[in-house]
Amino acid sequence: MGFKCGIVGLPNVGKSTLFNALTQTANAQAANYPFCTIEPNVGDVAVPETRLDVIAEIGGSATRIPARMNFVDIAGLVRGASKGEGLGNQFLGNIRETDAVLYVLRCFDDDDITHVEGTIDPMADYETVETELMLADLESLEKRKSGLEKKIKQNDKEALQTMRLIEMAIAALEDGKPARTVEIDDDDIKAWKMLQLLTAKPVLYVANVDEDSAASGNAYSEKVLAHAQSEGAQAVIISAQIESEMDLLDAEEQAEYLGEIGLEEPGLNRLIQAGYALLGLRTYFTVGPKEARAWTFQDGWTAPKCAGVIHGDFEKGFIRAETTAYTDYVENGGEQGSKDAGKVRQEGKDYIVKDGDIMLFKFNV
Fold first, then answer.
1. Would you call 302 helix, strand, or coil by DSSP?
2. How crowded is residue 27: how many other Cβ atoms within 10 Å of its Cβ?
3. Separation of alpha carbons 46 and 35, rounded Å
4. Are 77 and 9 in contact (CB under 8 A)?
5. Can you tell me the mean pLDDT for 46-62?
6. CA-to-CA distance for 298 and 286, rounded, in angstroms?
7. For 154-279, where are the alpha helices, taking DSSP H only?
8. In the chain, N or C: fewer CB atoms in 10 Å?
9. pLDDT digits (tens, 9 = 90+) for 13-38
10. Rounded to two decimals, what is the model's pTM?
11. How many CA within 13 A on the CB side of residue 347?
């Protein structure tokens, strides 16, 4: 579905190391100097999903195809980016194209890796990034206001709505609050999204810690988690260096290594799943002899809308969907067992698909 999470932060906080680990590639150059990432690197990442393995085994599927997300490694931002400092304009343009933002905050000491501000303070780093995005939003909104004046004089309804939303956003930003704190009515959501505000995007905080702190965090990451909690946001503790080193190990070696440092699963799994949840994404499955596949959909979507994820014709010609809950599929040993137990439902156009549903769409084109 093309969902993108932008990895942002100051230079040398571990963005590119994290990106490399996520994508298991070396496309993003991780080097000890600012702006080593000049162009945004986009990585297509599989969403960890144990349920897919289970239904594939039950269904005797030859292949397994997971759902995927895009992560974008964006050039490091510095103070003054909103005024074009560093690679500011390019940075701001790239982040505007993402659906959510992952704030990578440095939570480790290392004299060999310089910090652009000269000191380690994850919350000060956060404030620098957030301030630059807010300033960029303010500038963008002021420009839009001047372009609406003529239409407002003509009593244009869309212009009046847009101006009202702009003024709400400006009020929040001038009060030192990001645009995502503004409460928007359902009728205004479409127009609000059209403003393309950087600080309106959902945020996930990533506390990048040293190896010794990967399991339990440290004093730096505690500050990040406390801030995220105060916002009602999510935060993930992860050691990007550990994750990048695990790329060199096979599955058995990874499990042994994780056990030694007190982790049950790779931090990347938690990060990807948190990003998936951040965007309100859910998963349904299709299963057959050829393949078992996980499909991404937005929470609250109807069956026809979900069918359109596979192909537009499925949505246009939707008739019904044979639907089995994941737990029913597993407990009854697959499709036939679920049918025999009366657990396969025939759902129509108004059905709201649930996370984990196993679907078979019937359509006519």
1. strand
2. 13
3. 27
4. yes
5. 93
6. 17
7. 157-174, 189-194, 219-231, 240-246, 251-260, 267-278
8. C
9. 888 888 888 776 544 444 444 434 44
10. 0.80
11. 24
